[in-house]
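Human: For the file, kindly provide a plain-text protein record giving the amino acid sequence and the backbone structure tokens, at your earliest convenience.
Assistant:
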Amino acid sequence: QVRLVESGGGSVQTGGSLRLSCVASGFTLKEYGIGWFRQAAEKEREALSCFSGLDGSRYYTESVKGRFTISADYAKNTVYLEMNRLKPDDTAVYYCAAEIASCTVVVENGAYGGKPYGMDYWGKGTPVTVSP
């Protein structure tokens, strides 16, 4: 059974850092793109980053590029999102999601172009709160 479990969320002050983890089971990381999304109160779910298990490519949206770093441990079937210089508007529930075969990429600039409807499996999310 396919399962994604996020962890690592919590409360942090502005400027702090958190590392989120997404442990995948029921499938091999090599066969999927693993994306990170977030959803803040009264906002739509927003794509952040994606790790391509096939070739290790990493993609970001402009909103987090330069502050967030995605990585993976194939042996642990785990994808991480290191979040640095956090701001209050980063407060949201963070989700990982799996997309079969690859990450969706914006051709024009190479940014992550994943959409919630395009993802095949979802975790339940881990909340992040950044205080002023």
The chain has a mean pLDDT of 96. The longest strand covers residues 92-100. The CA atoms of residues 37 and 47 lie 4 Å apart.
